[in-house]
Design a protein that fits this description.
Radius of gyration: 14 Å
Helix content: under 10%
Oligomer: single chain
Shape: elongated
Order of helices and strands: EEEEEEEEEEE
Length: 121
């Protein structure tokens, strides 16, 4: 069994910062990539940022480039999203996502439970 535990959401004023954390645990042989998606009320879930585990290559959606930074900690199987200069349009439930191989080397994808980020104007 593999789990993702997210933390770090909350309420912040526009221009403020928040840091999201997500830790994977369980029967993992290796992580392939981890990332963040978000879903605003009444909208679809959209990609925000991701990082590959071996090379730490990062990807961002255009709307967060220059404001958000994704990073990882290999020793903790954790990914972080530093969100700076937050805007009201960043308000959403943020979901952690991971692609990994289990102990039998089978590939899987897993979602976290989501953490709410609210940015007030």
């Amino acid at each position: 069994q593999v789990q993702l535990v997210e933390s770090g959401g909350g309420l912040v004023q526009a221009g403020g910062s928040l840091r999201l954390s997500c830790q994977a645990s369980g029967r993992i042989n290796s992580l392939i990539a981890m990332g963040w998606f978000r879903q605003a009320p009444g909208k679809e879930r959209d990609f925000v940022a991701s990082i590959t585990w071996s090379a730490a290559t990062t990807y961002y959606t255009d709307s967060v480039k220059g404001r958000f930074i994704i990073s990882r900690d290999n020793t903790k199987n954790s990914v972080y999203l530093q969100m700076n200069n937050l805007k009201p349009e960043d308000t959403a439930v943020y979901y952690c996502n991971t692609q990994y191989r289990d102990i039998e080397l089978r590939p899987f994808e897993l979602w976290g439970q989501g953490t709410m980020v609210t940015v007030s104007s």
